[in-house]
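In this section we walk through a basic example: taking a raw amino acid sequence and producing a predicted 3D structure, encoded as discrete structure tokens. The instruction is simple. Fold the sequence below.
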Amino acid sequence: MSAQRRPESRADWQALADSLTLECRAFIDGDFGAAASGDTFATRNPATGEILAQVASCDAPDAERAVAAAQAAFESGVWSRLAPGKRKKALLKLADLMEAHKHELALLDTLDMGKPVTSAQGDTAGAIACLRYNAESIDKVYGEVAPTGEESLALVLREPLGVVASIVPWNFPLMMTAWKIAPALAAGNSVILKPSEKSPLSALRLAQLAREAGLPRGVFQVLPGFGHTVGKALALSMAVDCLSFTGSTATGKQLMQYAGQSNLKRVYLECGGKSPNLIFADCKDLDRVARHAAAAIFHNQGEVCIAGSRLLVENPIRDAFVDKVLAAAERMQPGDPLDPESFMGAIVDEAQHRRILDYIRRGVEEGARLRTGGEALEGRGLFIPPTVFDGVTPQMAIGREEIFGPVLAVFGFDSEEEAIAMANDSDYGLAAGLWSQDIDRIMRVTRRLHSGQVFVNNWAGGDQTVPFGGVKQSGNGRDKSMHSLQEYSELKTVWMALAP
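The resulting token sequence is shown next.
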């Protein structure tokens, strides 16, 4: 296992891209192969429009085969009853293999969904850290001995659930995959991964590395394909014990219905967001805060579930602050995703590109003031520049609905109470930001924001030690931290009667 040479320039990344051999087949029961139907779908580079590969398009028969293999592996105990230390060793080996191929993994996500390669490198580092954290946590989760009289002994055990199906999105393909599969595998489950049809390549490369790391047959499988085909089949399967999903709220609701129609499998959802970012007049260094506020929405082309898409600014500083955000946005223009200097890349596909432009048009029609951006960049590829609307009201579509693109909606407020009410006036509750130097205000407002996480004087801070997830229609369950590891295990009570 030798580490790849670090690419330094666009030319280096292009050379690496030219050298890639892409795995495009499904990974079922330890082997790569075509879908049962023989069908494929094209995955494209959104920065150039070129077809990268024709990928196996799995459907119900492939899901049935994968579920059977996962069940068989689980019941055999080859992974589920393996000593925790041995599972740890295998997952750490997988993390080491990912480290050795980290540039290739980052490049696959850049080519597949258009994010800047520098951003993809950060995602890959996060995915590796997630694998290592969960691997090291395996033997840190203890059962319990309940208090009883001397005539009894009561144990509370943690056991793996069984077969876990993980459906992940296209915006952070590898990192979201790690957030789902690492705790599920660490807990001893068999995992079937359904990557997005818009970004399947890094998941299939990961399957190659998992096989090399020695994960047993059937323990980790990858089924590329569409949500309405293979995704639906997994969600309706009577033999899938848990479904973990990151994606849109509408799809999350559908998956919960499928769980109810089948075997009441537990469902963990991380869904949409329309996150408020509150800027109070007492915050320090408006230039720095403006740069963070701009990055909160324009990072990853705004294709981020926790994007700070609603900017709430106290009116005494509103005009000056918005001007600073506009200046920051000017330095965050999209560019070639393979150029390490590009802050933004390409929009993932034509459908998302059209959706974003339609919301921009609606914002203009509804009377919001377009301050910058608003039109697709001419030429090859799917690029939209940073777009900022001021004078947005809560009734406007751009102020209420998740756009999932580089579109910022600016609101003004006059009081703390008004800011809290405006922030909470949303179907979503995934993230919120708060910028202030007043510790009393920080504690008051933080407690009253209806959100799974609140970032104070930063945006998107955190690491593997803290949980990630939302409330309201942003979903349930948590990724990251020991909390996620516990969600992929079942509690079993053992009550033993002792001889007198």
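Looking at the output, two observations stand out. The radius of gyration is 23 Å. The chain has a mean pLDDT of 97. In the next section we compare this with other chains.
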